[in-house]
Amino acid sequence: MPTLSQFLFGAVLFGALVAVLGIALAPAWQAWRRRTLARQPFPAAWRRVLARHVPQVRRLPVDLQLQLKQHMQVFIAEKPFIGCNGLVVTEAMRVVVAAQACLLLLGRPGGHFGNLRQVLLYPGAFLVDRVRTEAGGVLRDERQVLSGESWSQGQVVLSWDDVLAGAADPADGRNVVVHEFAHQLDQADGQSNGAPPLPRGMSAARWTRVLQAEFSALQRQLAAGEPNLLGDYAATNPAEFFAVASEVFFEQGPQLAAERPALYAELQAFYGVDPTAW
């Protein structure tokens, strides 16, 4: 008969083996669950929400529409939504956010915003208090009014008013959901620097060279007062350049390809889709 110490040792060993087995099987179980979710019939109520609020979906080729809906089903099942400032999050709100966020996943096999833990929705623009370091190391409190924000800890914060406005016009190059979820992709390695982890086969050296050159070219254009497609905010830093360029890529693909072909080519390789064909 085993002693108490032997029994406890055996119990601990068994628990450790179960834990290790669970960790080993978790990816396979998650992949199975996602395939099951993607195969479910797309709810008719969600179709009506898309038809009313997200006209971008109608622009997509039929095969990409199907992929988008499959990604949405997984996204809505996996990502919690939290209402802020009294906002009650509805199913329609989840659908509108998910449809725009999942555009970024269409050409990225296996991508599901793995670091994203929560989506926080405010009724409208929200206030954020920040401390800014000025010249000489002087710290100054600053209050900002924002329509969206992405945190490397796994949260995306959005203004519902701006989510709706961004979805309403799929060709104006401005979409807060695409912008903030581009930041999530950028932050997948813990940094927000305009250099997201690249798909296999892409050259990191070429990505860095092209985006740095395009960022510098934009700054020169703005300094000279020349018109451009990306706008002032894209020149803030490389992270914002990537996020703004992603908005324009998905909403004004043909114009971006004509004005900045090298940048368009890198974004096309990164996202795995070609909006010039939509």
UniProtKB/TrEMBL annotation:
The keyword Membrane applies. Keywords: Membrane, Transmembrane, Transmembrane helix. The lineage of its organism: Bacteria, Pseudomonadati, Pseudomonadota, Betaproteobacteria, Burkholderiales. The chain crosses the membrane at residues 6-29. InterPro entries: MetalloPept_cat_dom_sf, MtfA_fam, MtfA_N. Coiled coil: none annotated. SUPFAM superfamilies: Metalloproteases ('zincins'), catalytic domain (SSF55486). This is Zinc-dependent peptidase. It holds the Pfam family Peptidase_M90. PANTHER family: MTFA PEPTIDASE, PROTEIN MTFA. It comes from Pseudorhodoferax aquiterrae.
